[in-house]
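Page 47, continued from p. 46.
Same chain as before, 391 aa.
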Amino acid sequence: LRGSRGLREVALAGLLALELFAFASDFAPGVPAEAAQPEPAGLRGLEGRVFAVGKRVLGPNRGLAHGLRCVRSYDALGNRYVQETFDALAPFEGPMMGALGFDDAVADRLGIRWVISDDPNLRANLRRGLSNWLPGSQGYGGPHVPLPAGGVQQSARVPACDVVSLPEVSSRGPTRFRLRISGPAGERASECFLPGAGRGALAFRFEPPLEPGQVTLRLESDPPGASAIYSARPELGRLRVGDQQGPGSLTLLYARQLSAPYREHPRPWRGAWLLENPDPAPLVEVLAGEGGARLLPRERPDTLELELEGGELRLCVAEAFSPGWRAELAGRALPVGSRGGLLELEVPGSGPRRVRLRFEPPSLRLGFGLAGLALALWLGLALWAGRGQLH
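Result:
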């Protein structure tokens, strides 16, 4: 090819196309998915929508290859939510960092029945009926601060929550811990009991929930002499121990009480735990009209199919709304709206029928158009160069 500039350009274009094809096919275009990625036997037979969260989780493409038609990724819950949570907790390190990107209330609305996670903190929270740690949780420290008679006191800004957790306390015997919170609405108190000597975690519950705002917290132990984990970083505030005051803060993690604890599946999947949501919303809800609707198994990540019967129906589909969703009934386009962040549509007609929902964002079509234009321009220049007209 040394003597022909046009052939060099065409060869480069062919190599680029080959590289893109290899990348899109996971660098193994002829290998079946079952051979490249062994079947997750622990997930065989699951019914319902799946959500994966953690460091090593089941990706949507891999789940679809093995027949799990409703595998969801974190983006289904909204990238903005995840990013805001990470930003709020960016200065901190510790047990709250792995339990991000999952919200039980949103999971309920999206009809997520199963949660796969390799995060032990999220697993422990869900089994106890607690949400993930909320933004505003205090930094995770290393040393313990002793709890003398009268306890320790500090100020803190708490979010709206009904659970305040201490991830690690220590005692020399049976000990009762009391957390007092004083704010504009008065003083609230909650107690936890550690039955024996050693270390443990405490979750103080408040009913009704705490209002967000600046409060004063006092942690006491009975008998005195227990200790609790804290951080000595001065930017977190000041901690009063008896008559002395110094920089730092107790490690206080805030959460919400769930309607019911999650149930753990007896068969874990490759080091990750499988937890069942006790109260997911239906995947399709009939808002108005006489009849029924159900969501068929998903064949493509960007497509949903509904099977309907009865008369005219107004439906809410448990799928995150975003501009680009399109609905079609027998070749006829239907408008798709938003209802609390989910999909809403009205389906005319009567009797058995199917509606196809497809996600085609305008940005995707624009990207394909620009890529096609650039490719055509490149090939045109290559052919022009081959004819000796470009120097």
